[in-house]
Structures are given as structure tokens and as C-alpha cells.
TrEMBL record:
It comes from Nocardioides soli. This is DUF222 domain-containing protein. It comes from the Bacteria. Residues 94-166 are annotated as: Disordered. Residues 157-166 have a biased composition (Pro residues). Residues 143-156 have a biased composition (Low complexity).
């Protein structure tokens, strides 16, 4: 895999300075779609390799506390981005169908990477039922309310009740 990655980098270097002004609209559109698909495939492959590197503890020999920290240092990215790549790789390993879809995924909404995590099959709830957030929000360190419920919450109607006059 490392030789294929090196060949891909050489091919990318070969077209890095190519001029695009001579492309007609059809060619530019087709090339843009193919580049987007290629970026999705590379993102998926990067996440899988990051997860494998985490499994075999890459970076531990140089004193890195984790593979994600080592990756952030080597690539000069943020630790959050490196941890995200490692987590995504582990999530894709756990969900093979999501991994297969993300490899051929064409980004939507301006994103050029596969979805971050597989969506859960059930909504998170307490005791199997959905529970709306009613009443004032409470801090876990205090017993007093921190904010009243908003007008659009399930416990307060959006229109005020009619006033009663005696």
C-alpha cells in the first residue's frame, strides 16, 4: 500500500501545475466530480490507516502519548483533527457497510470528506422513551434553576393563554 501511495503522490505532483483554462464546461464538470470522488476515497483510506496505526501504537517508540498526538505533530494539524481521523477509522472498522459507502461517497453540503460517524439506529432516550426537556434547565452543581423554559419548548405554548378577567 505504501508504494501505491507514493505513486499517487507522484501522479498528483505531475498535474499540480497543469493549467485548467483550456477545459470546456463538460470536461471541467466531469473532472470536478472525479476529483471529489477521489478525495472521498483518499479520506476513507486515511481514516482506516490511522485506525490501524492507533491499533499498533505508532509513535510510541518516540515517546508520543498516543498515535493521534504523534499524527498531529508530524502533519502539523490540530490534535482534534488527528483524534477525529483516528476515531473515524475505528468507527468505519466497526461498521463495514458505512465504510463501503464512504469510499464512493460524493460529498454534499460543501463537505469533501465522508460522514464523520455512522448514525445510530435508535434515538437516544431514557428508558426507551423520548423525554422532552421541560421546565427550567438545571446545572449539575446547583439545585436552583439556571434559565426558564423558552416559549417554543414542549412545556410552554408558543401563544399566551387568554387572560381572565373577573
Amino acid at each position: 500500500m505504501s508504494t501505491t501511495t507514493a505513486q499517487m503522490r507522484d501522479l498528483a505532483d505531475a498535474v499540480a501545475d497543469a493549467s485548467v483554462w483550456s477545459m470546456d464546461p463538460a470536461e471541467a464538470g466531469a473532472t470536478l466530480v472525479e476529483l471529489t470522488r477521489l478525495a472521498a476515497q483518499v479520506s476513507e483510506l486515511q481514516a482506516r490507516v490511522a485506525a490501524h496505526a492507533d491499533t499498533i501504537h505508532v509513535g510510541q517508540d518516540v515517546g508520543a502519548s498516543s498515535t493521534a498526538n504523534w499524527l498531529a505533530h508530524q502533519t502539523k494539524t490540530t490534535r482534534a483533527a488527528a483524534y477525529g481521523a483516528v476515531r473515524l477509522g475505528h468507527d468505519l472498522e466497526a461498521h463495514a457497510s458505512t465504510r463501503r459507502r464512504s469510499a464512493g461517497w460524493v460529498g454534499g453540503c460543501g463537505r469533501s470528506s465522508p460522514p464523520r460517524k455512522p448514525t445510530p439506529t435508535k434515538p437516544r432516550s431514557c428508558n426507551g422513551r423520548k423525554r422532552p426537556r421541560c421546565g427550567p434547565a438545571r446545572s449539575r452543581w446547583s439545585t436552583t434553576a439556571t434559565a426558564p423554559p423558552t416559549a417554543g419548548s414542549p412545556c410552554r405554548p408558543t401563544t399566551p393563554p387568554p387572560s381572565r378577567r373577573c
